[in-house]
Amino acid sequence: MARGSVADQHGDQQRSVHARALLLLGLCCRAAAMSAGHMPDERLIGWLGETYRPGDQPGGSAQDPSGLQAVSWDPRIFHYRRLLSEEECDYIRTAAMPKLTRSGVSDSLTGRNKTSSVRTSSGMFFDRGHDEVIAKVEQRIAMVTMLPADHAEAMLCPS
Question: What is the C-alpha R_g of the chain?
Fold first, then answer.
């Protein structure tokens, strides 16, 4: 037998041993997950071809105790309950109220901002880091979105 074929046979045996070891490891992990009462591969979005499955969180709810709720995985949309405290909401509402101005529309001919009977809302913007409360909220939003706070636009408060 030629030397190359012995090396090939040895390599094939090693690959076979590696493949069996990986298969055994996978079966052990699956058995451990089953004995723990859950099936991790069934919770991996996309594993079975889906993009979102309501109830994919532990306990059958698509919401966890932190207030995070997955609305959609494609596109990725999450709803964060309790992102702001009631006190923060009251503070922002009170601080914004006297600064609200009528929202405008763009004039289709000049491109300038103008008021229109079609748009009746009001709003105002807080400068970034306006005060301690606004800065704290901006930092929390940065943490949740995993984007630096200075990448965000000024906070809009519509009415």
Answer: 28
Q: What is the pTM of this model?
A: 0.54
pLDDT tens digit sequence for 55-84: 554 444 444 556 778 888 888 788 888 889
DSSP strands (E only) in 49-158:
68-73, 76-80, 101-102, 105-106, 113-114, 122-126, 155-158
Handedness of CA 58, 60, 64, 69 (dihedral sign): positive
Scanning the chain, the segments in alpha helix (DSSP H) are: 3-35, 86-96, 132-145
Query: How many angstroms from the chain centroid is the CA of residue 123?
Result: 27
What is residue 156's DSSP assignment? Answer: E
- Write the pLDDT tens digit of every residue in 21-49: 554 455 444 544 444 455 444 455 555 55
